[in-house]
């Protein structure tokens, strides 16, 4: 299992974190999602492409940088 780290821009509250976790967690192959509001850090566990993560983050209303 691999863990990939990304940075999400635009999150300002706990609801933002929940939205990102929910969208990314629905990607097939994702086994775990951790989001840190203060740093914008997004850790995704599993076998998933960066494009799929980007689309999910954008669907939640935020930007992957």
Automatic annotation (TrEMBL):
Recorded hits in Gene3D superfamilies, A to Z, give:
3.30.70.100
- Name the domain of life this protein comes from: Bacteria
Q: Which UniProt keywords apply?
A: Metal-binding
Domain HMA, residue spans: 2-65
Do you know which Pfam families this protein is assigned to? HMA (PF00403)
Stated name of the protein: Heavy-metal-associated domain-containing protein
Its taxonomic placement starts with: Bacteria, Bacillati, Actinomycetota, Actinomycetes, Streptosporangiales
